[in-house]
Design a protein that fits this description.
Layout: H1 2-21, H2 31-37, H3 40-54, E1 55-56, E2 59-60, H4 67-82, H5 85-100
Antiparallel strand pairs: 1-2
Helix pairs in contact: 4-5
């Protein structure tokens, strides 16, 4: 059953990617759909990162000694101020390592 589920999900993923990426097919997305899809990247990133940053040992961890929280907050501020991926990653990791040590 697990293998069947994996194969079906692979087929669905391939089909949806193929339909929208193949230039010869007459399927085009409207402007509203494209605009809505522009939010999917940040939404998925938030869904992945939030539990890593905020949950430890099955409990919400908002303590001031949480290095994940300080690293994430630093990265958010740096990304907002500079817009540079390199500065964001570098300073976020630096704060994480300094507090985590």
């Amino acid at each position: 059953m697990t293998m069947l589920t994996i194969l079906l999900l692979a087929c669905i993923t391939f089909a949806t990617r193929y339909l929208f990426l193949e230039g010869r097919l007459p399927i085009r997305l409207g402007a509203n759909v494209k605009h809505l899809l522009s939010f999917s990247g940040p939404a998925v990133l938030t869904a992945i990162a939030a539990p890593i940053v905020l949950v430890h040992e099955q409990q919400l961890d908002l303590a001031s000694d949480n290095p994940y929280l300080w690293g994430a907050l630093t990265a958010i501020v740096v990304a907002y101020k500079t817009g540079s991926v390199y500065w964001t990653i570098g300073l976020g990791m630096l704060v994480f390592m300094l507090i985590g040590v």
